[in-house]
Amino acid sequence: MPLNDARSTGFPSTGFDAPVAGAAAATPSVFDVCHVGVVLRALSFVLGVLVCGALFVADDWRSWPIALATGAGIALPGVLLWLLAACALRRTLGGWPLPAQWGAAIGLGALCGALGQAWAELLSIAPAGPVRAVAPIAAGALLAGVVFQWLHLRARAMLPADTRARLAELQSRIRPHFLFNTLNTALALVRVDPARAEEVLEGLAELFRVAISDSAAAVTLADEVALAQRYLAIEQIRFGTRLQVDWELDAAAGAARVPPLLLQPLVENAVRHGVEPADGGGTIRVRTRVRNGRAVLSITNSVPAQGSRAGHGMALQNVLERLHLMHDVAAHFEARLEGDVFRVQIVVPL
After folding, report:
1. What is the strand order of the sheet 294-302 is part of?
2. What pLDDT shows up at residue 9?
3. pLDDT bracket for residue 57 (50, 70, 90)
4. Is 34 buried (19+), middle (13-18) or exposed (0-12) by CB count in 10 A?
């Protein structure tokens, strides 16, 4: 894999499930808030508003923590209720017209504000009374509107970003040199080993079928491993004993959901930059395992002493962006050179 692609990256933020790529893809539900990044941002925003608001009602610095705690006791349960309701109803509400979605978001905010006030009164951390109840309802509706607008803008921005990532990914996936080499390999085998030539062409057809398919926003890691095995089987015929592949696969990790064509470009990079330029070939190791309730995928390849032609980093950047879109802070991507070995490690939730 290209040495200039080395990087170590963790994902800091937001989360929607990656939308279906392609020109006909639909915008994801604005109410899809079932992700750690969205929850943390919403809570941080409301808490920031409370910190500022408490300054207006506190008489001095000693009473400010009390005012903040009282506001948090009302607002934070309401925010969590709003997020839970939006998550549970995301498919239903996502199909409504935009004005109806606005009404639902603001109405849910007002209701959750009222419930937060009732909870605070029950715990005797907030004064009761009809006038006092108006503030949480109004604040809940207002804050819900602000959060919904942020989610709406985020959803609109995601689709073109994912489309650009998909186009870049396709450019890096179906490289002309790979197609040319594979067809030449098949032609060379037609007379001496027709069955194997047919196997090569079937593998190539499967790679192209997945590359041009827009039918899924996510696939299983097991499917990605199977596709990468097809690709490396084709390359194994080309390189023979120069290409050594070591698979260490944990079946439990195969259930993890990942973007389509996540693994294949990484092993293709490993072949192109680790095996192809080396006179003696090289070794690629693909390992999956479960660690702390998450699936860990690692791809390593030997690095030739003479190095290879530097790449543009498109494959790694594309993988990073699509993981970011799908899993947000729940995913981790790392790529680095370790001596004479280049390692890529991806961690995703199960």
Report:
1. 7-10, 332-338, 341-349, 294-302, 282-291, 243-248
2. 42
3. confident
4. middle
Whether residue 43 contacts residue 76, with contact meaning beta carbons closer than 8 Å, is answered with yes
The pLDDT tens digits for 113-163 are 888 888 877 777 656 555 566 888 898 899 999 999 988 887 776 665 555
Tell me the per-residue pLDDT of 203-243, one tens digit each, with 9 for 90 and over. 778 777 766 665 556 789 999 998 889 888 888 888 888 99
List the structure tokens of 5.
């692609």
Query: Residue ranges of the domains in the chain?
Result: 3-11+174-349, 36-158
Tell me which CATH code domain 3-11+174-349 carries: 3.30.565.10
φ/ψ of 10, rounded to 5, equals -110, 155
CA end-to-end span of the chain: 27
Contacts of 199 (CB under 8 A, 6+ apart): 233
What distance in Å separates the CA atoms of residue 5 and residue 311, rounded to the nearest whole number? 7
In tens, the pLDDT along 11-26 reads 333 333 333 333 333 4
Cα–Cα distance measured from residue 349 to residue 316, given in angstroms and rounded to the nearest whole number = 20
Burial 216-248 (b: 16+ CB within 10 A, else e): ebbbbbbbbbebbbbbbebbbbbbeeebebeee
Q: List beta partners, residue 347.
A: 296, 332
The pLDDT value given to residue 10: 41
Pairing of strands 282-291, 332-338: unpaired
Q: How many CA atoms lie within 13 A of 216 on its CB side?
A: 14
Instruction: Name the residue among 218, 183, 246, 251 with its Cα closest to residue 331.
Output: 218
